[in-house]
Amino acid sequence: xxxxxxxxxxxxxxxxxxxxxxxxxxxxxxxxxxxxxxxxxxxxxxxxxxxxxxxxxxxxxxxxxxxxxxxxxxxxxxxxxxxxxxxxxxxxxxxxxxxxxxxxxxxxxxxxxxxxxxxxxxxxxxxxxxxxxxxxxxxxxxxxxxxxxxxxxxxxxxxxxxxxxxxxxxxxxxxxxxxxxxxxxxxxxxxxxxxxxxxxxxxxxxxxxxxxxxxxxxxxxxxxxxxxxxxxxxxxxxxxxxxxxxxxxxxxxxxxxxxxxxxxxxxxxxxxxxxxxxxxxxxxxxxxxxxxxxxxxxxxxxxxxxxxxxxxxxxxxxxxxxxxxxxxxxxxxxxxxxxxxxxxxxxxxxxxxxxxxxxxxxxxxxxxxxxxxxxxxxxxxxxxxxxxxxxxxxxxxx
Length: 398
Ligand SMILES: *Cc1c(COP(=O)(O)O)cnc(C)c1O
Hints:
alpha/beta; Aspartate Aminotransferase, domain 2; Aspartate Aminotransferase, domain 1; 2 domains; seven-stranded mixed sheet; four-stranded antiparallel sheet; 11 strands; 15% strand; binds pyridoxal-5'-phosphate
């Protein structure tokens, strides 16, 4: 079990988001910890320098700014400690490297974020770590894939793009019984909707680029760990000196204070939009675990306290040209990678090109939506016109 957070757990999540990692008395009364820019830290005496005596020793090892976000995230996540990284992907890689060595075996969900997969296949393999991909729907059944050298099990829920839920408590129980470490990429839910260390994860990764930022204006990663894994995580982080820049950390802190409000609004808007899309004749299926008919709904309801703004839909069969006609004419939905900002996004996607142990055959074109903070009626009108273009393009081709 993970250590309880350093603040009394009687505080609610929103109170913690506002107060965690902040001590105005150390900042001359100002509300926020400022941006400390710095490499060199000066020592008053030779003796202090030789013994690196002092609260801070060098820029890569931490500043009051980075410490503030680490501390706050540790509290919000219910972890023993946190390290920051210059991107979400860097957070994934430092987390994996902290618990794996040559000769180890890694179990990785087939539904993982694609660059995570590329790191396993393109880097871990070279350094003697073998990765086996597993079906995200496996719960305790994952036991049959565990080998004597299985050192880590990586989960991500819901799955990147495809939105399968995973039974993380069940997987964790099995993994822990075999001595393996459990990691979760918790970017979609954040610790507010899925408290990772209370659900079995030893290490949790968050792409702060998404909802911590909320503004599509920075790259940041966070890795929180329980008592069992934090020491190795911190050591690995120090060896790589994988530190983010101070402005990005400051913006992460700023985002943290309002994250609960933004998440709830993304959730509300996305659920409304998902239901609207589900009722459209052009849509075959909505992939959103908070929708009652979703195959992952029972797990979501049991383990999660909310859903965020990202989900996918499968359209009824339509030509690529028709889908392009729909998307290219959208006025409010941007097309681009990443998500979590204030603005709505859509991308077409196809998991079949990279999955290896689960089949991706949705039966129609797949679109991933991020629902931003615009007026829902405006967004629906934009999509409504898009669907008209889709139907028109396909009617013309027929
Ligand atoms: C975006 C994302 C990442 C990587 O974050 P970057 O900051 O873009 O590197 C990792 N995991 C998931 C699930 C993501 O959506």
